[in-house]
Specification:
Strand content: 35-45%
Number of helices: 2
Shape: globular
Distance between the termini: 18 Å
Mean pLDDT: 86
């Protein structure tokens, strides 16, 4: 597991992002902040490996914003899982 953690740390260093997102609760409409950790890349098997190895987060595809760019896949953890 130590090797997996080191590899994941390298991926996060190169492709990762930490965000604090401001959102509204649907029922009360109060604002709150949520921690989000994301790793994004075009190599889907690596992103799926992250999700299956650490057994947390979600994998979602994202279409490119510009013509000629590759489709990306995001591994994302929110709140306490992050």
């Amino acid at each position: 597991m130590k090797d997996f953690a080191a590899y994941a740390a390298g991926l996060f260093d190169g492709e990762g992002c930490v965000l604090i997102v401001k959102e509204r609760r649907p029922k009360t409409l109060n604002w709150y902040y949520r921690l989000v950790v994301t790793i994004a890349m075009s190599h889907k098997p690596t992103i799926e490996w992250l999700a299956s190895t650490f057994k947390l987060g979600i994998v979602s595809p994202r279409q490119p914003r510009q013509v000629g760019y590759k489709k990306q896949f995001h591994f994302q953890c929110k709140a306490n899982k992050a």
